[in-house]
Amino acid sequence: MPVSLSLLLIAGVLIASGVYLLLERTLSRIVLGFVLCGNGVNLLFIVAAGPPGIAPFEGSGDPSEMSDPLPFAMVLTAIVISLGITAFGMALAYRAWQLFGHDEVPDDVEDRRVLRRSQRRPGTEAPSRDLPLSEEARRGALLQSQGMLGPEPDEDDHETIGSDLSGAEDVPQDDTEADDGPDAAGDDGEVSR
Hints:
Elements: H1 5-22, H2 27-48, H3 70-100, H4 109-120, H5 135-145
Helix pairs in contact: 1-2, 2-3
């Protein structure tokens, strides 16, 4: 069975450029990358379907001359799914544009905290994740993360794990509707628009 090299190259270029765009930080480029990856994979499914044949209807011809309908059904399903995910991604990008004036995905606050914690103590090693925690230590960490239990100072004056989880300097202030002060509320307490 001869396979079209040009279709394979086009599918490879679509997938490669889609992966490149998926790794960008703006939501609109991520959506375009997803669309390109989806189209490249759909093209690979069509190439994998084999040589073209007659329509696969019962009694319309010899079964050996019929084309396989499964890859085409999978492509149609993938088109519908990618359309839904594209619409969802574009809605996210539009909402981010409305709120922040851009659709760039910001750094994760927790990643910055972990990086800062590792830079603060360069000579110390990270605790091993293989060590089992007692039930009391897990419950205390959960209560502390929920603000129900204050951090207890250690006797050797080391910072406890999770004590910097509520640092206000980590979170940039966003100008969203939820951040409006009491001056945005009217006389009856509702936010004016």
